[in-house]
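Fold this sequence, please.
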Amino acid sequence: MTGLPPLPAAEGLGEGMLAALAGMPDPASATFAARFEHDLTKVFASRLAVAVSSGTTALHAALSAVGVGPGDEVLVPALAVVMTAAPVVQLGATPVFVDSDPDTLDLDYADVAAKVTARTKAIVPVHLWGRMSDPVVLRAFAAERGLAIVEDAAQAAGSSRAGVPAGAVGDAGCFSMKDGKILWSGEGGYVLTAVPALAAHARAFRSHWLTPPPGSRPQERLAVNGRLAEPLAALAQANLRRFPVLLERRRAQTVHLLQALSGACGLTPLQPATDETWNHYAPLLRIDLPHPRAFAEHLAHLGVPSSTGSFRLVPCDTRPMFTSGDREPCRGAAQALNRTLALVLTEHDDEGVLDRYAAVITQEAAAWRA
């Protein structure tokens, strides 16, 4: 195995934050947020960027900008977290959960097509674990039905498919910078878009409509407090400069761990599509062992974190606030989650940590099968 790229120096992370703090209190200041937005457009080749307080706020602002409101329906994969669906509800619309192919993790378009109605306004593809839906198929499906596309790309910074970067498939791409993401600032998020009107709406929406888009008046509609705090914007900007190295390190970490697990019984790495450039956000393995979810939970108790074992991720359509007796469960999403070991990494995990994870997983898999 090759060694991991060195963790980029963190000494400079605090300098911008200190500079931002030196200018406080200044309730109107957005200097560092504006600089961060400018840098985002350069790094991700996006025409426009809007910094916000979280990935959830990014989705909330973008869905509002494409016109989602009371009475509308929005197609949301069940293979998602609650935070993907919550903004739909907060806008007065209804999330309609759609299934995914458990083998490819892409949308199950037969199920999606069956759930489109006259009220359907948008579709929210979720690039869980950094894995992307096929942008060509998604664009054609949405265009044929007149649907807006708002991507939940929270974990997908640095991924692309068919030459299309995550966040550039449709009307808007929404990202999170929660601690643990490859590009992080503790809390925060951003919207990428090529549509000026959408960006202007998102900027107004994140700040109680105080800076309205053209044709609107200040505070003529309700919005949210979703600004990115200046010290966090400074931290985000500093990490954005480190992003290429952080991305390279995450890819190397995932490759290292998957290679170390090559002999583990009952575990098979999930491969990206041939046209997919995956950011390797999380090492993914298919579990071919009895009671696979219980196995992931067992590993979590032994200090090996994962989406299902540590965070108990389940299909969003089974959450109590969304369950409905008149809808069939999304069985593909349930199958994907139940049999996928999605390991949780951070930039601080070195070869020693990764090798320990591999040793525990290999040993426990053999014992579990026996």
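The two ends are 29 Å apart (CA to CA). The chain has a mean pLDDT of 95.
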